């Protein structure tokens, strides 16, 4: 009988469902907070059900010798080392919708509490002070609410805020004009949102792109007296910069459900009067906890008992027979998508995937799903092959696939084109005999490059001396070049360099490379 550990507080419904499905279950809701104890016992379990308090680190995973599945009863999986779990073949699942309404309602509650200083007025009244003149609030009617991240939760917040007669503007690179229209929100760029919003609410996952999305510089560009709500993740706001902005009066108030360090017991923001804090309660309602407990227990049981996979974040849906033939192309498609996604800075209207040659005769759906996953991953940390097509559809991203079985110069190749409002950008690749993916064309420029974990992508003017200058600069920066690939259309037109480097470029190094004479665009790419 498979054995599951529930290491965070979950509704008793979960325990019952495990038992009903023939899964043995240990319900130890405080264990997740005790890293050493978790490390000691994790080896016994086939499944692990968690919320946000259990941190599933690489170290924990290395001791999880029997673990097959981790189920997150909730949305954010930033407490799970997914690459490490994937490397160990452990499925990571979440429950993407179970607590979204509840979290959106918490954000709205926080916004209204902020507008009327409810917590402080409550404390003062109960201290027998009756300070009627001290608590002068603001109305939310006709005020502008800026939503950063218009996904599931952000969209519900938008709907509720319109019920409160607010003007809603939203920034989300994956929000299509059609979807914005549906939601009744005005799609704006982040700078415009900062400049116009009276209230700002955050609803993005925590990723490398969103970390400190509200920084000291961002506060500079906001309206004086703006109020900020964060019910997403602590790392989205630079807490020290927020403390300064509150002290200077630039920010009139902040309502925070999440913190950089959790549990937050000693946070500098606690000392400030115009701050409202809750202990990561966004998902804490009876209804949401019932939803997520039920879903996670069903999903984990189904996987352990029948192999069925739902809401997995790290596993493609491919049948056992197809797997060996599809896997290299799935990998290639995801890498091409990731390549194009990392180069795309504006919102995506469409994606075209062309399969040429022998690959066109295979089941290309998982490949298209992998390509979409790769394109969207820089922005949606939790996207996977199962969810990517649905997300693309919901966001109004047109997906077109073309299968041509006749062979050209290569036995098989895949070309992926990302279509934005401004341009179309294509990347093509193939699989060589060794099963490794190779890029064969970027923006119509032929080249041949193996994709490596750390790469530098450069578009430059094709003029004598450029390669020498670039090599010298990389040397000065202490960056070792492992491989150097070049391509160009015609003499003197744009050229592309794809450089495999040892180690990761930091922002300053990338700035210096961008400033090099002849460079038109420089990007650090990770695969
Ligand atoms: N406080 C709490 O208890 C809870 C917090 N959460 C947090 O809320 C987050 C959002 O949840 P959902 O709405 O369900 O996720 P979602 O995946 O449906 O939406 C996230 C949205 O953020 C957008 N996004 C990504 N990068 C962005 C960027 N750089 N700028 C602007 N938008 C960007 C995405 O395009 C997407 O539309 C979760 O990742 C989780 O961290 C979720 C549930 C409860
Ligand atoms: O679902 C999420 O992303 C949450 O942040 C909810 O966290 P929790 O399950 O309440 O610890």
Automatic annotation (TrEMBL):
Q: Which CDD domains match?
A: ACT_3PGDH-xct, PGDH_4
- Kindly state which reaction or reactions the protein catalyses: (R)-2-hydroxyglutarate + NAD(+) = 2-oxoglutarate + NADH + H(+); (2R)-3-phosphoglycerate + NAD(+) = 3-phosphooxypyruvate + NADH + H(+)
Q: What does this protein do?
A: Catalyzes the reversible oxidation of 3-phospho-D-glycerate to 3-phosphonooxypyruvate, the first step of the phosphorylated L-serine biosynthesis pathway. Also catalyzes the reversible oxidation of 2-hydroxyglutarate to 2-oxoglutarate.
The broad enzyme category this protein falls into is oxidoreductase
Q: What pathway does the UniProt record associate with this protein?
A: Amino-acid biosynthesis; L-serine biosynthesis; L-serine from 3-phospho-D-glycerate: step 1/3
Which superkingdom heads the taxonomic lineage of this protein's source?
Bacteria
* Xref: InterPro entries: ACT-like_dom_sf, ACT_dom, ASB_dom_sf, D-2-hydroxyacid_DH, D-isomer_2_OHA_DH_cat_dom, D-isomer_DH_CS, D-isomer_DH_CS1, D-isomer_DH_NAD-bd
Keyword Cell inner membrane among record annotations: no
The keyword NAD is annotated on this UniProt entry: yes
One GO biological process term: L-serine biosynthetic process
Domain ACT residues, every copy:
455-527
Listed GO molecular functions?
Answer: NAD binding; phosphoglycerate dehydrogenase activity
Q: What is this protein called?
A: D-3-phosphoglycerate dehydrogenase
Documented EC number(s): 1.1.1.95
Keywords in alphabetical order: Amino-acid biosynthesis, NAD, Oxidoreductase, Serine biosynthesis
The species this protein belongs to is Arsenicitalea aurantiaca
């Amino acid at each position: 009988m498979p054995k599951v550990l529930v290491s965070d507080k979950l509704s008793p419904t979960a325990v019952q469902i495990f038992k009903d499905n023939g899964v043995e279950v240990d319900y130890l809701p405080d264990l997740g907070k005790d890293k050493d104890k978790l490390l000691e016992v994790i080896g016994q379990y086939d499944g692990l059900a968690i919320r946000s308090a259990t941190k599933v680190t690489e170290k924990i995973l290395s001791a999880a010798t029997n673990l097959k599945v981790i189920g997150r009863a909730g949305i954010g999986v930033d407490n799970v080392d997914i690459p490490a779990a994937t490397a160990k073949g452990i499925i990571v699942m979440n429950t993407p919708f179970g607590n979204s309404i509840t979290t959106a309602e918490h954000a709205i509650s926080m916004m209204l509490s902020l507008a009327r200083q409810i917590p402080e007025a409550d404390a003062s009244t109960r201290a027998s002070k009756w300070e009627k003149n001290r608590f002068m609030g603001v109305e939310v009617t006709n005020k502008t609410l800026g939503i950063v991240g218009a996904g599931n939760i952000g969209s519900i917040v938008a709907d509720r805020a319109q019920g409160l007669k607010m003007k809603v503007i939203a920034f989300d690179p994956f929000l299509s004009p059609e979807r914005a229209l549906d939601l009744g929100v005005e799609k704006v760029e982040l700078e415009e949102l900062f400049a116009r919003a009276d209230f700002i609410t955050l609803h993005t996952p925590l990723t490398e792109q969103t970390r400190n999305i509200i920084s000291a510089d961002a506060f500079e560009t906001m309206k004086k007296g703006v109020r900020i709500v964060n019910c997403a993740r602590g790392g989205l706001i630079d807490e020290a910069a927020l403390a300064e902005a509150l002290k200077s009066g630039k920010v009139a108030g902040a309502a925070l459900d999440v913190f950089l360090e959790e549990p937050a017991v000693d946070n500098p923001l606690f000392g400030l009067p115009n701050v409202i804090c809750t202990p990561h309660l966004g998902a804490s309602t009876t209804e949401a906890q019932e939803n997520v407990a039920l879903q996670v227990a069903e999903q984990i049981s189904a996987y352990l008992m029948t192999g069925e996979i739902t809401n997995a974040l790290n596993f493609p849906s491919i049948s056992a027979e197809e797997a060996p033939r599809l896997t290299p192309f799935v990998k290639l498609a995801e890498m091409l998508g990731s390549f194009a996604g990392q180069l795309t800075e504006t919102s995506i209207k469409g994606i075209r995937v062309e399969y040429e040659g022998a690959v066109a005769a295979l089941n290309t759906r998982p490949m298209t799903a992998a390509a979409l996953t790769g394109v969207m991953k820089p922005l949606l940390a939790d996207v996977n092959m199962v969810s990517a097509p649905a997300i693309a559809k919901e966001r109004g991203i047109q997906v077109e696939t073309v299968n041509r079985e006749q062979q050209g110069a290569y036995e098989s190749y895949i070309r992926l084109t990302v279509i934005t409002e401004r341009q179309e950008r294509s990347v093509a690749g193939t699989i060589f005999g060794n099963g490794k993916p190779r890029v064969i064309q970027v923006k119509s420029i032929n080249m041949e490059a193996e994709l490596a974990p750390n790469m530098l992508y450069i578009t430059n003017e094709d003029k004598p001396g450029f390669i020498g200058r670039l090599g010298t600069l990389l040397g000065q920066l202490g960056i070792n070049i492992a491989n150097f690939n070049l391509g160009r259309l015609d003499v003197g037109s744009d050229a592309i360099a794809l450089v495999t480097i040892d180690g990761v470029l930091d922002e300053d190094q990338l700035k210096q490379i961008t400033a090099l004479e002849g460079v038109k665009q420089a990007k650090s790419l990770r695969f």
